[in-house]
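Sanity check

After download, print the first record. It should look like this:
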Amino acid sequence: MASGWRKLLEEESEHQWLAIGVFFIFIIIGGFLIGGTSSLEGMVLGTDASDDLVFEEGEFLIDIDYHQGASWDQAHSAILKTQSGLRMYQQMNVDDVDDILQPNDPAIENITLFSADEDGIVTFSHTMNTISTYVNGAISEKILVDTYGSEFGINALATDTSSMLNNRLLITSEDGGSGLRGWSGQDIVSVSAPIEDPIIWDDVVYLEDSTFLAVGTYILNTSSDSPASPKLEVVLAHVIWDGNTSIAPQVLPILREGSEIHSLFRTAGGGAVASTNQEFYIVSSDTIQHFDYASTSMVYEAENNRAWLFAERSSESVLRVDVETGAASSKNLAYALPLQPTWSSIEGDSLYVHGFNAQGEADRLSLDLTIEGSLSSGRGFLNFAFILVGVIMIATQAYMMVEKAYRTNKA
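Expected structure tokens:
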């Protein structure tokens, strides 16, 4: 058989078209096959029963943070509504579950700040002027007092990681409104709103060079507006503060029309990305770019410096944005999105989307980020096969051309 194939390839020009034709047919078929496997693989709805995740027992997941630095890739801290009430807990392994506050503790209802770092340290606030920290099963509290004895709730905080003192910028609620305060670890300094009309600050992240990004909603009341439906604008503000409590943080707001920002993440290199239902923002310490990319939930992937934007339940694709360039590409999902996204996170090689299905039940969707383009995926295998067979066919043709030239010269 081998000798017959060799004889066929060594025929004169009347047989050359056969090899070329086979090669082009292979290209066309391979192109269709690769195009047919362009959807994201590795999507899994639900969780592994062997992980015995606590939030599977709840009716509503109020808040959750995964701990990427933990030995177990499902380690997390969360606030959960169950049939019996509220539970605030930390799960570091299948059998390692601790209640941060006792189940149904009235303080859980008053939580205004809840965040956890990659190592499992939980920071929360449930009492005016108080920040609590949960570490290794113990809670410590820090009372924040300014020179005026003000009372304020704490809704969000960001830490200047370049500062030895870990200077922080707080979002506070006080006097029926919203404010920004700098905290040096000891002293508190407040920031007056830069605009006469009220701003409701929602979230804050640290960028770089003593610069933070605060986001919120600007309520614009004009004579032409209905009091029942005032005009709302998105606020993104650079806040500059180096920890000097004798100088109030400087706020440089930029206003845009749009809905409330639902997702905010710090990016690699000292920037940030933010999303509303209508727009997507890429922010540095001195610039803010906006794009008309809509989403209901967004998550940032640090390893590849890109953001994933999810639309409504039943959508068939996800938008992936390169943060460096702002270019977006649409990726087809393996099947229609079964959840209405409420929160998303990337931990290690997994992307998690929490939300509600059509029956209003809470669930989680997982996406393995390592599968796309790998040999274990259909597209990755076809890409590899396409390249391998193409190289073999081209090498075979080149070999026969060289051998034929050699025989011709020898003759």
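If your output differs, re-run the checksum step. Summary of this record's structure: Confidence is low (pLDDT under 50) at residues 374-379.
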